[in-house]
Design goal:
This protein has 169 residues and is mostly helical. It has one domain: Ferritin, CATH 1.20.1260.10. It has five helices and no strands. The protein binds MU-OXO-diiron (FEO).
Length: 169
């Protein structure tokens, strides 16, 4: 297996873990009736699986081998909406650094198809960090009073996960 193939398999694992991490935030919000926040994180978790599948499909298309490894347990206790978003932002910075390392490797190995595919992730990571950063700023600004959280909750409800079946639409 090439170095790039191995590194892309590791990135598939990181993306699936990201989805798992964001899914672990959903019960925290659901238990507090913050359904808009829960909806936002369900959609975010789905988006991470989409990221994983994008790399998964690419590895297959270029004749590589997808090997799936165990997914780590998201072992963090959620204590406040602000803490959740701060952890999310830190995690996205970690993912950005991982994508940047893959870009470096693609250049070093002269793997132009991988480099091209990874450009999508470079742009996506700017959006991912900006999203989390915006919510950290807003939670710091508004504080975590009931009124501020309700306002944000209603705003976040606009982001909904894809339906699981036609029945849910
Ligand atoms: Fe797949 Fe949130 O980065």
């Amino acid at each position: 297996m090439t170095k790039m193939n191995k590194a892309l398999n590791e990135q598939i694992n990181k993306e699936i873990f990201s989805g798992y991490l964001y899914l672990s935030m959903v019960p925290y919000f659901e238990e507090r009736s913050l359904d808009g926040f829960a909806s936002w994180f369900k959609a975010q978790a789905q988006e991470e699986l989409f990221h994983a599948m994008k790399i998964f499909n690419f590895v297959h298309e270029v004749g590589g081998t997808v090997v799936l490894d165990a997914i780590e347990k998201p072992d963090i206790e959620w204590t406040s909406p602000l803490q959740v978003f701060k952890e999310g932002l830190e995690h996205e910075k970690f993912i950005t650094a991982s994508i940047n390392e893959l870009v470096d490797l693609a250049r070093k190995e002269k793997d132009w198809p991988a480099l091209d595919m990874l450009q999508w992730f470079v742009v996506e990571q700017v959006e991912e960090e900006a999203n989390f950063s915006l919510h950290v700023d807003q939670l710091e600004m508004g504080g975590e009073s009931g009124a501020a959280l309700m306002f944000m909750n209603n705003k976040m409800a606009a982001r909904v996960p894809l339906p699981l079946s036609a029945d849910e639409e």
